Amino acid sequence: MDKKYILVKDTRRAGSNQTEHFAGLLAAKIQASPAAEAVQVVRAADIGFYDQGLVLKFLPGGPVYLNVSEADLDRVVRETVVGGRVLEDLAAAGTARQLRVVLRNCGVINPENLEEYIRRDGYRALSRALFEYTPDKVIEEFKKSGLRGRGGAGYPTWLKWHLTRSVPGAEKYVICNADEGDPGAYMDRSILEGDPHSVLEGMIIAGYAIGANHGYFYIRAEYPLAIERIGKAIEQARERGLLGTGILGSDFNFEVDIRLGAGAFVCGEETALIASIEGKRGTPRPRPPYPSVSGLWGKPTSINNVETFANVPVVMTRGGDWFAGIGTEKSKGTKVFAVTGKVKNSGLVEVPMGVTLRQIVFDIGGGVRSGKKIKAVQTGGPSGGVIPEDRLDTPVDYENLQKLGSIMGSGGMIVMDEDDCMVDIAKFYLGFCVEESCGKCAPCRIGTYQLLKILERISEGEGRSEDLDRLRLIAQAMQKASLCGLGQTASNPVLSTLNYFETEYREHIQAKRCRSFKCRDLLTYSIIQSKCKRCRQCFLNCPVQAISGDREVGFYIQLDKCIKCGKCFEVCKFNAIARE
Amino acid sequence: MVRATINGKVVEVEKGTTILDAANQVQVKIPTLCKHPDLISSAACGICIVKVKGSSKMLRACCTPLDNAMEIITHDPEIVSIRRTVLELILSKHPNDCLKCGRNNNCELQRLAADFGIREELFPKYLKDIPKDESTGSIVLEPPKCILCGRCVQVCQQMQDVWALSFLERGFDTRISPAGDIKLGDSPCVRCGQCSAHCPTGAIFEQDDTARVWEALQKPGNYCVVQIAPAVRVSIGEAFGFKPGENFTRRLYALLRRLGFAAVFDTNFGADVTIIEEASEFVERFKNPSPERPLPLITTCCPSWVDFMEKFHHDMIPHFSSCKSPHQILGVLSKTYYASKYNLDPARIVMVSIMPCTAKKYEITRTDEMFASGFQDIDIVLTTRELARMIKQAGVDFPALPDEDPDHILGDYTGAGVIFGATGGVMEAALRTACFYITGQKLDRLEFSETRGLKGVKESSIEIAGNRVGIAVAHGLSNVEYVLNQVREAVKAGRPVPYHFVEVMACPGGCVGGGGQPYGVTDERRSKMSRGLYEDDLNQPIRSSHENPQVQQLYREFLGEPRSEKSESLLHVHYKARPQYRK
Fold first, then answer.
1. Confidence band (pLDDT; 50, 70, 90) for A94?
2. Among B58, B124, B172, whose Cβ lies nearest the Cβ of A445?
3. Residue A481, H or E segment
4. Average pLDDT, chain A
5. What is the pLDDT of residue B444?
6. Can you name the residues that pair with B5 across neighbouring β-strands?
7. C-alpha distance from A442 to closest chain B C-alpha (Å)
8. If B424 and its partner were Cys, which of A25, A52, A553, B473 is the partner (CB 3.0–4.6 Å)?
9. What is the pLDDT of residues B276-307, one digit of tens each?
10. Average pLDDT over residues A527-556
11. Is A97 part of a structural domain of the chain?
12. Which candidate from A283, A481, A483 shows the least CB-CB separation from B82?
């Protein structure tokens, strides 16, 4: 039987860290209980919750307890450790909403140990596929499951496999797209690092389904641990006859290689990815022909995302019908999100499709860290858009996000509060796209740059009244005339902020005002003499000596010298610096 | 077949036909920019977008095959507006200095801007100052004018297999450049100029030497001699609104005299001499091949091909004909034979060649052997495009000029000389003479249609006096490797070589499709121009080089026998390996 673990972490921001103390106490109490042998207490460096007092996380699959006091520990050992019952008063509300399908093994097993994976039903799906299913039946099962590509576009997985399978030819390929590149997204990385065998198993099953004997992992070189663990997983699988010739004694052969990406965002686009594997410049090419017809080395190729593959063994073991029972009408299963930004509990969450954004942010994420009002949630990374507060009750699925002007994307989710300026946000994503545009097609190459320049101008107070029309004009041209998904969606951050927050843009342009105080050039700092205690802190901390005066006459900011760094505002303890 | 509608009109085309081509069939011209009929669509510009009913996405007409039941809309206010915005974006990264540009009035981008009625610069310009690259002496690279359509890169890598040009950097900073950001002159570039012939803007163009010619013409004491290459006569008319293939040989002679040349010769004469030398070389090898002089004999009229071979296929050097190219031969003969006969000081003779070719600019100083007489064989090379500009500068009403004859004694040519300008022409001309040399009899046939046409590699065998002669004709450098490998494999396996005679021209279509020819070359134009040359051949009273009376006179009075010591020293060269990294 697997050992159970309890992760312990004192997450209080103030006061000395009591993790060690609590862990010791808990361990002692468990030692004295009947569960002594079965449970191990582990001190965690990060537990995914912040400022929630003592946090206990029961693994695998158990509840998370927040704000546990010393007095609760006896109760916890008696009821939960020994009795297996959840103490509702301590349990974190959000965990109930999570459903771990993809992340089922992450953090539970030793990812470098094949035995642990096998003990948790690992490679049962493969064996079932090889001996109980024909390739067509495998595809049929995935049609039932409704699984769609987790890379962002949501193309039905079964259909991709079916198309690749139907193209005649003995030589076909499976590619695992592990070129995760959205800023702030690390879902794929966590899966590769935490459960490499599930991805590998998914890939072998895909190979069997489409009739391919060769697969490639395309992993970005910035993920060294993921590369190492996938490499080990491949070796272990090969030793156990799970890869190679005559897998598990069947007549199916499959080999896997790793190819490293140099970190170009566009190489996540399937045709650019193929070019990169072939050793060419990583730029997209027009489709059709689609990779399912003419992919790697001109052969039929199915490219699936890491998270998609991690779903595959589950669908095979528990059945398509089971999988289709999770989620919404058109979007089945779960989705892993990397929730970051101004949220209290940032980290990876896995939820069934159809959960609302509000539930993710508030029930699981614990709401806004600063306590300020939430302004928007950004999904889909640089190809996505912002979703304003009043739309947060929308159930998350592929179609709904698209309707809101964003996309599911690979699962990045950034929470924004009132301190976030929407012009600034658009500028940030555009800056990313300008960096990452491959330069092949004109609308994206020049359009992103022109958009960025207009946004920069607006945030510097040089905006002109015609700029909003220009932004829309360029954005539309990029959407319609760019060659690949990157270009077609690169304007989404601009369009969605413009759509929901046009007032903010207008304020920047007309009133030269940034309500979030983000756009430095639009700010003016001054000293409110009635509040100033003449403590000299601003005077001493100003990096450019823009503050003059002395304790006798008071202090003044010389606007021509001020670089608007905000240092005086930060250091003033008396709120005597005005920022507008 | 697929059946669909374009702007409501039913269209039925073969499966795989692009929307762009299908639209042409219902008289719809979708605007394009990066697309070139020679090349696979790179889909870079986004100008040719169209709508398909039922989809919110727009499709690129240039590379999307028409599918059954598609309802295509090629023009509506939204489409036109988007095309216009894309064009404005492209213009925002282009210097728009049309007045000073070599492509003024002949630029695909300019034309599109005119069509779309661009009257202002909608977006601010963000240009990068990248210096011109003039290091090849043949082709000038001006990256700021580049719109990154990718044609030159595809031409250089796929069509020519040279891999000199590539994209460098990414995103907004992307530019074309030799890999490693070295100068083009240090790169594998073979100066074929196909990049310049395919460039839609003024980003790649020929090194302009017209000023040097003007100067030479007016300098007192100079004796300026000019020659025109075969392919020029059937392409120059295009600059004046005539159809490609129309023959302007005799009006060109008149024109060149009007420009001030003292003597007007024809490269076709040089071609006839080339044939005498090369056919002799072939017959010698055919009768008595040796490891030093093996079969097949490979032609060397094309300087890009010679450069390419020295860089990448130097194992084939023993197979190479040592004969100079026709215009070099005519140059050296002008400064020796002609000069002595007419008592001219060769030092005062300025030889100008009008060529369809940018590589010829490089060839004239290729090795010391290009100065074999003590003087430079050819002093200046102009491309067809440069000549067209000179004609316009000179204010000559070219199409209205009367026909004139070339000057003696290096001007009269045979039908064999004129077909040099088309792929397979050198082979055909050589066969006419070689057959005579082998059999000693006039041939019953003069035409070898197996050498003609635009197929990339033409392999065949013909009978000469009971002997089988295997021939191969390749044009477009990417087609060379196949032919050479056939030879290499046969040699390795100890089999008889599949060919005895091989012709290679670097440019698709041969010289008619040369890198210095008028812009907008397509296979249709290539075949029209070739046809023009073959018609000229038919119209010649003499159609074999060895029957050219002036050539016979040349040998009688000056060279002696073919491959005599004199001709070896003046008309022949050696090759050396100059290996270079590629790909």
1. low
2. B172
3. helix A467-481
4. 92
5. 76
6. B10, B71
7. 5
8. B473
9. 999 999 999 999 989 899 999 999 999 999 99
10. 94
11. no
12. A481
C-alpha–C-alpha distance, residues B5 and B8, integer Å = 5
B369 is catalytic: yes
User: In the sheet that B58-60 helps form, which strands lie side by side, from edge to edge?
Assistant: B9-13, B2-6, B71-73, B49-52, B58-60
For chain B, list the domains and their CATH numbers. 2-75 (3.10.20.740), 92-206 (3.30.70.20), 212-571 (3.40.50.1780)
Q: Which of B156, B301, B302, B357 is catalytic?
A: B301
The verdict on whether omega for the bond into residue B464 sits within 30 degrees of 0, i.e. cis, is no
Give the rounded distance of the alpha carbon of B268 from its chain centre: 16
d(CA A455, CA B572): 66
**What confidence tens digit (pLDDT) does each residue in B565-583 have?**
999 999 999 999 998 865 4
pTM of the model: 0.91
User: Using one digit for the tens of pLDDT, what is the confidence trace for B230-264?
Assistant: 999 999 999 999 999 999 999 999 999 999 999 99
Read off the CATH number of the domain in which A352 is found. Answer: 3.10.20.600
A153 part of contact set with chain B, CB < 8 Å: no
CA A384 to chain centre: 12
- Tell me which of A491, A511, A531 is where a domain ends: A511
* CB A576 within 8 Å of CB A537: no
Catalytic: which of B363, B386, B428, B503? B363
Sequence-ordered list of residues with C-beta below 8 angstroms from that of A453, at least 6 positions apart, any chain: B124, B126
Give contacts of A283 with chain B, Cβ < 8 Å: 167
Contact check, Cβ <8 Å, B89/A286 = no
Is pLDDT above 90 for B416? yes
DSSP output for A117-129: HHHTTTTHHHHHH
CB spacing of B172 vs A449 below 8 angstroms: yes
Whether omega for the bond prior to residue A60 falls within 30 degrees of 0, making it cis, is yes
Has residue A56 been placed in a domain? yes
Identify whether A103 is part of a domain.
no
Q: What is the mean pLDDT of residues B103-107?
A: 93
Residues A356 and A449 in one domain: no
The set of residues, in sequence order, having a beta carbon less than 8 Å from that of B200 and lying 6+ positions away, is: B33, B34, B36, B107, B108, B109, B147, B149, B151
**What total of structural domains would you count in chain A?**
5
**Active-site residue flag, B489:** no
Same domain for A501 and A538?
no
Give me the total of CB pairs closer than 8 Å, taking one residue from chain A and one from chain B.
104
- Scan residues 34-63 of B and list those with Cβ closer than 8 Å to A: 41-47, 49, 57-58, 60, 63
State the amino acid at position B247 in one-letter form: N
Mark whether B455 is an active-site residue.
no
Contact A439 B49 (CB under 8 A): no
Question: Under 8 Å CB-to-CB from A194, ≥6 apart: which residues?
Answer: A103, A105, A106, A107, A111
Chain B residues touching A440 at Cβ < 8 A: 42, 44, 148, 150, 174
State which residues form the domain around A122: 114-323
* Cβ-nearest to A481 among B46, B92, B150: B46
Task: Identify the residue whose tokens are 């004469």.
Answer: B269
Four-residue CA torsion sign, A455, A458, A463, A469: positive
A186-190, A321-325, B440-444: segment of lowest average pLDDT = B440-444
Of A2-6, A104-108, A192-196, A374-378, the least confident? A2-6
In chain A, the residue whose alpha carbon lies closest to the alpha carbon of B82 is A477
Pairwise CA distance, residues A499 & A491, whole Å:
12
Q: Is B321 a catalytic residue?
A: yes
Chain B residue nearest residue A444, CA to CA: B171
* Closest-approach residue (CA) in chain B for A289: B64
Regarding whether A196 and A283 lie in a shared domain, the answer is: yes
pLDDT digits (tens, 9 = 90+) for A493-518: 999 999 999 999 999 999 999 999 99
Q: What is the mean pLDDT of the segment spanning A226-240?
A: 97
Same domain, A296 and A388: no
